[in-house]
Amino acid sequence: MSNARTIATFCGLGLLTLATAGCEEQVRQAPSGLNAPVAIEAVRGEVCLPGLDSEDFSIAPGALPRCADVERPRGFGLVVNTVSERLGVVDLTASIPRLVNLDTRIPGITQIKVGPRPIDVAASPDGTAALVANQGDNTLSAVDLWTMRTLPEAVELPGSPVAIETFENASSAGIAALLAAPNTLWVGPSLGCERPEGNIDRRGYTPENCTWAEGEAVELALPGQPTDLALDAEAGMAAIVYGDLADLSLVALSDEALGEATCLEGESAPCEVARIDWAGERGTLFGATEVAFDPSGAFIYVLEQAESQVVVIDRARGELIDARLASEPTTVGASDIPGIALVRQARTMAPVLERRVLVDGPTALVVHRHGLMVASDNGSLYRVDVLDVECAFEAPEGLLSDEAFASNTELRDAHPEARCLTLPALPLASLEESIDTSDEALLNRRVIEDEDRTLAITPIFALRDAAAAQGRLVGRATCEQPDELRQAMSQAAAGTATALGCGSPLIDQPVAPDVDEELRNFIDAPRAELMQLARAQLQVEGDEVQAEINRQVYDVRLRNESWTLTFEGALPGVGSQERGIIATEGAGKFLSGGVDYCAAGVEVGDRLRILSEPAEGGGCADFQGSETFLTYEITEIGATTLTISPIDEEGFAAMLPTRECFDTGLRYEVRPQEQWIATGTQSGFASVWERDGESCVLKEDALNGRIQGRVAAGEVWEGPYLALRIREGEVGAREGLSYTFRVDRAFAVDGASLGTALPSELVVIDDIGAGRQIALVDAGTSTVYIAPLDNILTGGDFVR
User: Fold this and answer.
1) Residue 533 pLDDT > 60, yes or no?
2) Which residue, 474, 602, 663, 796, is most buried by CB atoms nearer than 10 A?
3) What range does the record give for the signal peptide (predicted)?
């Protein structure tokens, strides 16, 4: 007798002191069956799930039905449990999604036993078989989905599997597995299973009707350590990213390509169609963790977890889209990363193409919103907007349903609406042209008309703000006072007539770059003066199409961050590690010991202070003095070298340091003279300099809104997200005087707080009987969150 039936019987006999409603709730509650789930696959094909028993969530012991033979075809989900080494079956179409019990003879929720340490699963295109990648023994477990039973023989792989996908296109079908040690793309023949004839008990059945396609497996060497694989099955294309390279490989999965002996040598089309360096000249120390194709085919998304960004690649052109330039207004100077800045550390993502019909008539008007959903390490699920496109076109035969548009690519490609998915290159304007944000200029570059469509494009490249949720910019500073200033204030409080303060106060923060000086206060500024998103929109009246710009309050630049302004503070890029070196040739020559002085923002006139004690010996005692004694002025700068000179003032050393008195591994710091420096917790310290060989040159964007992270008293400092003026106070600033304040996003992020701990996979499930859904797999809490795509906040349920 199953656990659920036992509880139901006791309730009927009145042996439990529980209310009837409580008993019924327990009957409906499925026992936990997930154990560190890491991946999910939605199955839609020839095999369908029958109805579940309402008491023990089981299905009949026979083979599963054909979808063609049931009145209400229902697909299902497969969940990989890496600890229990089992494959769970999930009813995704039930009012409350739940695990399916495959064998009522065993207590609890029984599942499919697979290999050791499974990490991924993929179903065959026809939905009759599934492959599970096992890292414990480098094998693939094959599962017959008619009987939910594993085939006796596992497929041995030449390396440790990282990810697995199945594909079918016009020229080939098969299995693509990403392997490490060695770094390989393994492509093998496909698997299909037929439904067994007659009455069988699948619970003890050995699959006999499964067939592997003809052909040998192909192994393609990869240039780096692979981390993720995404397939566009229709186009027969695989995208691969690496943990140690900022590269993306596009590989053709055709019979012709896989037969190329020189595949993946960089010049061997059609196998490796392209290799895209998504970091560009900026470079990166990190690779990527995930890759995905936009459902429309316009973009490829790369998740770089280390820098909390999503990089967007133009798929048609094979080029990185710099989000700083593509967004309008541009965020050049507000960010160094070329991707979309995320909240916290994103762990997994899923592309989404949202569609909304505005006019369904002979001249139709639809909105396509390209973007992603992202799950982060703080238990949040939120949305990222990339591009909004309004499209007007002639549709004399009417529009497709949302379900058909999303899941039936053949119908979509044949419909006039498919022309709306062909997009222009981004950015829409050069950096100089994008400065003009008047309605006329925006309409000229954002509205595209041709014979069969009119597009109105709004680039966003930012987190989506929650509707009607407005936060505040916080510009209140706390002052960290050095001892000297605290003593002066104490003396003032004891009776001196001078009113002493904490020094130079922050002015109120501006809300937009062009706000009048009188409205430098966020609270006083009218909403019309806040940063805005200019949305390009269309109106259809009969067969006439009109375009307009509609502006709405929206700040694409702000993110939560703390800032510290310090008077004559030590430049953080130099630090005090033991790595400075006194040169043996040339008086006053100082070697960086590995520091890039250009990136660190060191400038002529700054002061270098030696922190190490001089060695003992003749002449070295002359370098003993006060804390600031060994401070010198910087007179020349190279990328890795400095020239220093003594400061002709009392209290400073008159002699230049020597190698004899200061061995290698010298500790030192650099401080600007009579200037404040600004350092953000995420932005760091902004330098306008970059390295060109052994010289420091101004960055291209240094004079285009990018102001360095230093400012003199009385001047306005314009940083990535705010501007402020440092004013002289009653007491002059002292070295080390600092203000710490925070800047919060002006608006709340649109998302859900799910309480997940270790999200490992996020997928969008096309309609398999219950509309479009999302599924978030969380190994930390051993749950899968299932929700309708249009109601992820409150309409979801956890499967355990």
Assistant:
1) yes
2) 602
3) 1-21
Domain boundary among 667, 695, 718: 667
Joined tokens for residue 29 = 């509650």
d(CA 494, CA 488): 10
CA angle, residues 518, 521, 527, in degrees to nearest 5: 95
Q: Name 333's Cβ contacts closer than 8 Å, sequence gap at least 6.
A: 701, 704, 705, 706, 707, 720
Q: Are residues 29 and 173 in the same domain?
A: yes
Angle at 493 (CA atoms; ends 488, 497), nearest 5 degrees: 85
User: Who contacts 238 (Cβ-Cβ below 8 Å, separation ≥6)?
Assistant: 165, 167, 176, 185, 229, 230, 231, 232, 249, 250, 251, 252, 253
What would the mean pLDDT of 537-550 be, rounded to a whole number? 93
In this predicted model, what pLDDT tens digit does every residue of 673-726 receive, in sequence order?
988 888 887 677 888 898 998 999 988 766 554 457 888 877 777 665 556 666
10 Å Cβ neighbour count for 21?
Answer: 8
CA dist 226 and 789 (Å) reads 30
Q: Are residue 43 and residue 172 in the same domain, yes or no?
A: yes
Rounded CA-CA distance 515/509 in Å is 11
Interatomic CA distance for residues 94 and 103, integer angstroms: 19
Rounded alpha-carbon distances, angstroms, from residue 685 to 477, 540, 720, 727, 746: 19, 49, 11, 21, 22
Please tell me the total count of domains within the chain.
2
Query: 462: which 2 tokens?
Result: 């930012």
CA atoms within a 13 Å half-sphere pointing along the CA-CB vector of 719 = 27
Q: 56 and 177 share a domain?
A: yes
Task: List, as one string, the DSSP characters of 454-511.
Answer: EEEEEEEEEEPEEEEEE-------EEE--HHHHHHHHHHHTT-SS---SSSPPPPPPS
CA distances from 759 to 79, 400, 732, 750 (A): 14, 34, 51, 18
Beta carbons within 10 angstroms of residue 727's beta carbon: 13
In a domain, 378, yes or no: no
Helices 20-28, 3-13: inter-axial angle, 10-degree rounding: 170
Express each pLDDT in 733-754 by its tens digit.
Answer: 778 877 776 655 555 667 788 8
Q: Which domain holds residue 645?
A: 570-667
Is 366 domain-assigned? Answer: no
Q: What is the DSSP letter of 94?
A: S
Least confident of 94-103, 474-483, 634-643: 474-483
Residue 449 lies in a domain: no
661, 617 Cβ separation under 8 angstroms:
yes
For 124-145, what is each residue's pLDDT tens digit?
999 999 999 999 999 999 999 9
Total-model pTM? 0.74
- Position 11 scores a pLDDT of 29
The answer to whether residues 771 and 659 belong to one domain is no
Give the pLDDT band (50/70/90) at residue 50. very high
pLDDT at 105: 92
Among 142-151, 380-389, 480-489, the range of highest mean pLDDT: 142-151
Both 646 and 780 in one domain: the answer is: no
From the list 213, 210, 153, 194, the residue with the least C-alpha distance to 64 is: 194
Cβ–Cβ < 8 Å for 66, 46: yes
Q: Who has greater pLDDT, 720 or 165?
A: 165
Lowest mean pLDDT among 64-68, 315-319, 564-568: 564-568
Cα 530 to Cα 471, 522, 552, 560, 685: the distances in Å are: 12, 8, 9, 18, 26
Q: Is residue 150 part of a domain?
A: yes
Same domain, 661 and 775: no
Amino acid at 476: R
Per-residue pLDDT, 282: 65
List helix spans (H) across 677-781.
none
pLDDT of the residue at 721? 52
Rounded Cα distance between 188 and 64, Å, is 27
pLDDT tens digit sequence for 414-459:
999 999 999 999 999 998 898 888 999 999 999 999 988 999 999 9
